[in-house]
Design a protein that fits this description.
Elements: H1 3-24, H2 33-42, H3 47-50, H4 63-82, H5 87-93, H6 95-106, H7 114-135, H8 140-165, H9 167-170, E1 171-173, E2 180-182, H10 189-211
Antiparallel strand pairs: 1-2
Helix pairs in contact: 1-8, 2-4, 2-8, 4-7, 8-10
Length: about 220
């Protein structure tokens, strides 16, 4: 099968799965696409790697990735403020998490690489904001299930597509041994393994819940 045709068929299949997922979670809002996009981002290669843009360093990432994360964080903040999110109550209920985040920020002061450490802290803080968006949904558990389904429905089919039809992106070779490794949408084979394990555990758990009739 020609790679462009395989890409088109895979895209159609993913769109079909996402439409099916929408019927499974009718009570989630459109704003849930912000956490979904964030999950898709952290579960795959950085944007700079996809576009083969040079990065300052592995830790710092590319300017494109930083711009993307800033836009995503800004969108999350806008959603939270529009929903009138209870910041004070949430901070009180998650005091230890807040203390950990503050300690991580303070630790930037004595870091040997303060610039990169601060960028890393921004990424961790962004993860907290994304979690708050999920918590602000009508049903946080259903929202999290929807995110995991969407992530599985997108990343697994496209990983298979890249491995078979676009090996320049989906396959890597060992530096010394020359062994062939499947990486799919991730940066390396261990990342693909984690993605597959998390997706498999979630799907099995969902099937067991359905089998037991647990739809709460």
């Amino acid at each position: 099968m020609p790679p462009p045709l395989a890409l088109a068929l895979c895209s159609i299949f993913v769109v079909f799965l996402l439409r099916l997922e929408r019927k499974q979670a009718p009570d989630v809002t459109r704003a849930l696409w912000i956490p979904t996009i964030w999950m898709l981002y952290i579960g795959s290669k950085p944007l700079g790697a996809w576009l083969q843009q040079p990065s300052e360093s592995l830790e710092a990432g590319s300017p494109l990735d930083r711009l993307f994360l800033i836009i995503l964080m800004s969108a999350a903040l806008i959603v939270l403020f529009k929903r009138g999110f209870d910041w004070a109550g949430t901070i009180r209920e998650n005091a230890w998490l807040v203390l950990l985040i503050m300690f991580m920020l303070i630790s930037v002061v004595w870091s040997d690489i303060p610039g990169i450490s601060f960028k890393r802290w921004i990424k961790e803080f962004q993860a907290v904001l994304i979690a708050f968006v999920v918590l602000s949904e009508p049903s946080a558990r259903r929202a999290m299930e929807s995110i995991l389904r969407r992530t599985t429905y997108v990343l697994i089919p496209f990983s298979l597509l890249l491995i078979k039809y676009f090996p320049i992106y989906g396959v890597e070779y060992g530096r010394w041994s020359g062994s062939r490794y499947w990486i799919g949408v991730t940066l390396q084979k261990n990342g693909l393994a984690r993605l597959c394990i998390i997706s498999a555990v979630f799907l099995i758990w969902s099937l067991l819940r359905r089998w037991k009739g647990d739809s709460a």
